[in-house]
Write a structure and sequence with these properties.
- The complex is a heterodimer of chains A (157) and B (377).
- Chain A is mostly helical and 157 residues long.
- Chain A has a single domain, classed as Alpha-Beta Barrel (TIM Barrel), CATH 3.20.20.
- Chain A contains nine helices and three strands; from the N terminus they run H-H-H-E-H-H-E-H-H-E-H-H.
- The longest helix of chain A has 15 residues.
- Chain A starts with 9 loop residues before the first helix and ends with a helix.
- Chain B is of the alpha/beta class and 377 residues long.
- Chain B has one domain: Alpha-Beta Barrel (TIM Barrel).
- Helix content of chain B is 38%, strand content 13%.
- Chain B is built from 16 helices and eleven strands.
- In chain B, helix 6 runs parallel beside helix 7.
- Chain B is globular, with a radius of gyration of 20 Å.
- About 2% of the residues of chain B have low confidence.
- Classes of the chains: A mainly alpha (157), B alpha/beta (377).
- At the A-B interface, helix 1, helix 2 and helix 4 of A face helix 8, helix 9 and helix 11 of B.
Chain lengths: 157, 377
Amino acid sequence: MLNCYHDGGSAAFQCNFDMYVRLSLTDIIFNGVFERFPKLRIGAIEQQLAWVPFFLNRMDFNYEQRALGMTGYRFKNDMKPSDIFHQNVFLSFQDDALGIRDRDIIGVDQLMWGSDYPHQESTFPRSREVLEEILTGCTEEEKAKISGGNAAKLYRI
Amino acid sequence: MAGYRIISADSHVVEPDDLWLNRIEPEFKDRVPRVVRTETGGDFWFIGDDRFLSLAFAGAQTGKRFEDPTNMSFDEPFENVRPGGYDPDEHVKDMDIDGVDIGIVYPSLGLVLYRIPDSELLSALFRTYNDWVGDFCSANPKRIKGIAMLNVDNVQVGVKELERCAKKGFVGAMITSYPIESKRYYLPEYEPLWAAASDLEMPLSLHAATNRGGSGIAAPVPGEHDGGRAASQCNFDHFGRVNVTDLIFNGVFERYPKLQIGCVEQQVSWAPHLVDRMDYNYKQRSGGMTGKRFKNDMLPSDFFRQNVFIGFQEDALGVQLRDYIGVETLQWGSDYPHEESTFPRSRETLEEILAGCTEEEKALIAGGNAARINRLD
């Protein structure tokens, strides 16, 4: 008998959730949905953050330097896919310190913390400690936005 | 640039249009890929009526993205393909222009052949390709190194070809970047492949655009709607990520600590997030690997550093994040002579993306890691 662990692919699923939202967002952005509906907001919820810098880089690269992206068609006002992302997409997360480190690339105005209460991976009952820890390097203004200000604005609270 | 060796760990040949027709075993001759000119003036690889690849991506527009990116085309004739794609002497001349010391070559059309359903045909096409590219490398064996193509639908057939190619001097082999869903790499049927690759010290690559039964890269319908092509182009890294997670969490690297698996031409900056998610799921969630713990307190991220390599062209952000990933995993490649290649600006590109690295790190990423993993002198 092999000494196999065989998790049957469940870790692969858990560790790579963000792919589905990336596919959806690429379809929506590259097919001009946000250009037609500039006030529309779409959110990637509970997918954490650190996938975003790479994703923005790939979208702009394909738009700017490859024929496959969107042949001939250009967004209005010299918008790039990353500009549209910053304008229309919001992101929720629980405890992604790496993503917070990259917040200037991701966009501070898009970040919304959430506890995921009462699920297994929730930050409850340590939400305040977790927030303090992951937001250590942020300014007071950034902390206020990420821990509540951005969500208040989005949901008109 | 500095005094270290530059190895393009991901260059390409462009298969001549008669490669298979003239060499394949007779019973497959009626089903070989052939180049057909379409009414729009471009040459495409076809098998039967099925269109596989535009030569516009595969070497007919090398360097154009630096000069005239808004005029990149889907239709290019074969005559416009850079001769270095199919002529080894020209290949080496272009390496000299680009400042590259050693080039490790992958196929072009061969990449998308993985979507052919007929497994016996696929194995025959790969054997023929391996013979041809072996000759290509033999023209200048110090400067050009080959990667063999494997079909592992039947693992024994794949292992046999791996052994044959290892004897012929190939430095590594490629397997599909994503098997069909019911044959994912966590299954025990792949054990002989991992064992053979480990024993032979042949690194196995998962190159972009090589999904089994997946779609090839054909030209989309022009117009405002891109029909989902961008989604595919911007998210290639997913398949490598799933495979790496499957291999790590199912203990493959614990059983074969010398095995090297590479995610090639998928860039780098996806990796910190994956490493972070793997360790998080392993440590804090029951979904990961219930009850099982790796020996010696190894974490998924430790296996990543030990057993995974990453091939990329110009991901400056990924290089900045190298401490999260492991600098020893990174292998630069030019992707010559494809559309998105860094040729003829590879040295400038390297200088730019490696600006924040120490001299030692630069030497590793630009060539040292590739030399170690591919056992080059």
